């Protein structure tokens, strides 16, 4: 039985999760970390423009440091993380430094790269394959503004690194479940065509890659979970046939039940008969989810078949600037007042000479988080006014950020909550999903 | 008799680019048939229409007593482009449970 935990669902998740897991469940074989949401790489690209040695999730280096006491005391836990972002080698060098300093110089780091296809896309923008998967638009329209383009690679290189002796595997963009499939392939020596086994491990990966979302976090019955400040991170115990038991460390709070597992099974999926990953195509339609003890749920029956002949690419491009502002309002007729204040801001920006390309006024409390879908309660006394704008002209968005505070004196009575200062102007990155032939992606691994 | 979907089901939602999915699961296995009959793609489309979605695909998962809905173009651009508070569709699961059925 291979015990694989997840200790990070995204870049910015709980920094102590890995060390806590190691204290609570020292027999874990692998810790896996996901750092890359769809536009995370564009943030790393901006960082790398300022300093070419960056471009990876620096938080991960601190996580590695937090684990050195366990390794020094003899722990054999191995790590797989896509923390490398745009610069897996740079990330590995920073980790190497920390390991050597902490007396863990014996640990070997495997670096997996080859996912970067920016040059391929930029040089061949008319290629129909690079059309936007959602809109069908040609890449030509935005090719000059591309910031990143990375293929979702599979588990193969991760498995090879581990079989080659790596204790820590650092990758760029790989499919999230592949972070879990890699260790399974290496441990059980599955071949790339053991589709149903790989499908099972992919489901295990899908279930734990979002961290505490499968152990009670965001569950519909979250309010019934005791001590939600200490929800445990998930562990998948994967068997040789690809089936698994999802659980969490003894002593952690949270809940692993048939319901929390089924909820997460449906998270961010499309057609459940064809869940696509670079390793396998999975059908969910014969999966059985059954409670198998306290905070233990068995998951089996995933059916696998060949994976697509192309890799999915997640590309990002510059798409102007935005800013978001919030103010609280209290008092009579508060919804009407809030909406009027929102219009005042937009009109003041217009008077300054900027017709904003896009703007949105929301009255949070009056149903605007899901606007028009659920009827708001009557006679509200307090709401939050949120105004968001976007424009290709940085100066237009900057002007907007200067028009919020004046409402404290010129807006409705009861405008309050202006404590955080002017909102920040942020670059917007458009998301461009497309496909690339596998031949264009040369997955490479090296050992440090 | 009409009741809120949340009395017989639970849900989870998330984003896929500018689209989102909402998984709806029967709290009791015997209510799955009712969900399958009444919680149609058309019904879900009408419920979320104010959000500007263009199409709803429904998938059945009888093994999990669940339905999965893909709500196309429901996030006004999604990701960092959408100006909405709920740019990632995190609230849609809670919203659908308010539906009268």
Number of helices of chain B: 3
Helix content of chain A: 25-40%
Q: List the secondary-structure elements of chain B in sequence, H or E.
A: EEHHEEH
Number of helices of chain A: 12
Question: How does this structure look, described?
Answer:
The complex is a heterodimer of chains A (448) and B (101). With 448 residues, chain A is α+β, with helices and mostly antiparallel strands. Helices cover 28% and strands 25% of the residues of chain A. Chain A has helices at 17-24, 40-50, 58-72, 88-101, 118-123, 156-163, 178-188, 195-208, 258-265, 334-351, 394-401, 407-410, and strands spanning 2-8, 30-33, 78-81, 109-113, 146-151, 168-171, 235-238, 244-247, 275-276, 281-283, 288-291, 297-300, 303-305, 310-330, 358-364, 382-391, 415-416, 426-437, 444-447. In chain A, a hairpin with a 4-residue loop joins β9 (275-276) and β10. In chain A, α7 (178-188) packs across α8. Chain A starts with a strand and ends with a strand. The relative contact order of chain A is 0.14. Chain B contains three helices and four strands. With 101 residues, chain B is an alpha+beta fold. In chain B, strands 1-2-4-3 form a four-stranded antiparallel β-sheet. Chain B is elongated and about 40 Å long. The longest helix of chain B has 8 residues, at 41-48. At the A-B interface, α9, β14, β15, β16 and β18 of A face β1, β2, β3, β4 and α3 of B.
């Amino acid at each position: 039985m291979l015990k694989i935990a997840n200790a990070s669902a995204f870049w910015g998740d709980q920094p102590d999760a890995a060390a806590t897991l190691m204290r609570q469940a020292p027999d874990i074989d692998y810790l896996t970390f996901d750092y890359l949401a769809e536009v995370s790489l564009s943030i790393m690209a901006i960082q790398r423009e300022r300093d070419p040695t960056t471009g990876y999730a620096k938080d991960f280096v601190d996580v590695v440091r937090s684990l050195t006491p366990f390794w020094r005391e003899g722990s054999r836990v191995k790590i797989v993380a896509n923390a490398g972002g745009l610069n897996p080698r740079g990330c590995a060098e920073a980790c190497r430094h920390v390991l050597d300093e902490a007396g863990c110089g014996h640990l070997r780091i495997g670096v997996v790269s080859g996912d970067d296809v920016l040059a391929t896309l930029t040089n061949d923008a008319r290629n129909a394959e690079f059309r936007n998967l959602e809109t069908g638009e040609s890449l030509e329209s935005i090719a000059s503004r591309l910031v990143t383009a990375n293929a979702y690679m599979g588990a193969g290189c991760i498995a090879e690194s581990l079989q080659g002796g790596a204790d820590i595997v650092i990758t760029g963009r790989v499919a999230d479940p592949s972070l879990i499939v890699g260790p399974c392939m290496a441990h059980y020596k599955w071949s790339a065509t053991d589709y149903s086994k790989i499908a099972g491990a992919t489901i295990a990966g899908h279930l734990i890659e979002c961290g505490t979302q499968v152990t009670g976090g965001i569950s519909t019955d979250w309010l019934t979970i005791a001590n939600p400040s200490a929800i445990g991170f998930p562990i998948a115990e994967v068997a040789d046939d690809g089936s698994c038991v999802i659980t969490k460390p003894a002593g952690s709070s949270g809940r692993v039940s048939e319901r929390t597992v089924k909820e997460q099974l449906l998270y961010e999926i499309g057609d459940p008969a064809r869940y696509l990953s670079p390793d396998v195509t999975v059908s969910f339609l014969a999966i059985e989810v059954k409670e198998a003890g306290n905070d233990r749920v068995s998951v089996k029956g995933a059916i696998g078949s060949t994976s697509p002949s192309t890799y999915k690419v997640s590309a990002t491009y510059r798409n102007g600037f935005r800013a978001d502002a919030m103010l609280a309002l209290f008092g009579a007729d508060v919804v009407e007042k809030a909406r009027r204040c929102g219009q005042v801001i937009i009109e003041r920006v217009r008077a300054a000479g900027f017709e904003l390309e896009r703007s949105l006024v929301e009255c949070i409390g009056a149903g605007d988080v899901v606007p028009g879908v659920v009827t708001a309660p009557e006679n509200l006394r307090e709401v939050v006014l949120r105004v968001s704008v976007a424009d290709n002209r940085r100066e237009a968005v900057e002007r907007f950020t200067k028009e919020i505070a004046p409402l404290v004196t010129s807006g409705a009575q009861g405008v309050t909550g202006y404590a955080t200062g002017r909102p920040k102007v942020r670059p917007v990155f458009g998301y461009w999903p497309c496909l690339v032939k596998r031949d264009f992606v040369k997955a490479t691994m090296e050992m440090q | 008799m009409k009741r809120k979907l949340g009395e017989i089901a639970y849900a989870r939602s998330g984003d896929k680019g500018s689209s989102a999915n909402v998984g709806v699961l029967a709290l009791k296995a015997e209510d799955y048939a009712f969900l399958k009959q009444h919680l149609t793609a058309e019904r879900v489309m009408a419920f979320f229409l104010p959000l500007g979605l263009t199409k709803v695909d429904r998938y059945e998962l009888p093994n999990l007593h669940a339905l999965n809905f893909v709500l196309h173009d429901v996030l006004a651009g999604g990701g960092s482009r959408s100006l909405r508070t709920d740019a990632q569709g995190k609230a849609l699961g809670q919203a659908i449970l308010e539906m009268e059925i």
